[in-house]
Here is the input.
Amino acid sequence: MWQSIITDWLSLGFRWLHIVAAIAWIGSSFYFIHLDLSLKPSGDLPDGVQGSAWQVHGGGFYRIIKYLVAPKAMPDELTWFKWEAYTTWLSGIALMIVVYYLDADLFLIDKSNLDLSPLQAAAFSAGSLVLAWILYDTACKTALARNEWQFALGGYLFLVGLTWIFTHALSGRGALNQIGAIVGTIMVANVFLVIIPNQKKIVAALLAGQSPDPRLGKASKLRSVHNNYLTLPVVALMMSNHYPLIFATRYNWVIVAILLLLGPVIRHFFNARHAGKKSPWWVWIIAAAGMLAIGWLSAAGPPAVAVGALPETQPKFSEVEEIVVSRCSMCHASEPVWASIATAPKAVLLDRPEHIRRNAKLIGRYAVWSIAMPPGNVTEMTGQERATIAAWLAAGAPGN
Here is the structure.
């Protein structure tokens, strides 16, 4: 029991830290992208300055300038923006270990896809993080990276292809978390392995009285732009594990493909406005169409093989109760018997008739319209059992 309680508290602590750090990282990232795009040239700027921006916040006025490469001499004080990104990734990896690796049977593995052991699933997950970064970083150093649209299309197809692989190898929840972790890892590695090292080289050149290489700043700027357009998709992917109609339905990988498209499109709208360009209002038509498509796809239900044929006669409540008790109550009980669970998830109890009737809609959402529960189908609920519950729900969830 104590192991489960400690794990739950670790999950809470790492999740809290992860969210706070992500807010700080994304907030500063969005701010600096906005700042870069809003800079304006003027006649009273020092040599080598790209432009300046006037801003007001908290009752005070600020004037900010940006050098094309660097000032002629190092300032006495310099603020580095890096720990927000590092903390986000480190806390995210810790959370991934606690939730997905230590409880791989529940959240990472789906034996109907691949019969992996927890160690194999964790190794597959960790290895794909490293491999994805290597492939992305290599592509950034090729001629393809010079063509913005071709690189964006190639990156998009790369992520969609990975999503398809993961949804056919891992559980739906694990797959969407994995693609989100890959995008997040690419973003943090951009900061840790490219942006910050390049900035340090620029600082070192200044301290040595040399002119910094302008290619360093351009390379860092390119990776920063990539991060900017990846931010909204990664946030959506990290939220998706709370929504079974996204991760545990038939077209989950197509839903991810739409999210990977909508995020950059929405960022384009705000980037254009920050740059003082004509607002591309067509973006919101695409966004609305995309969200409608996601809703329609999520309503398609689970994979066709997951639910059997509906019974010819209306099932009795006793049949439904037997299925739910045998497949769900080992976790959703006042005293769960699953080793790694101390209390019923989300305080949902399914061990008594009145509890089953009260939570009928939740049962449908998690075990019929999607296959989120049982997680990884660890209790081996059959398609025909899901069909029996579906027929009961279609009849209005009667209590007899």
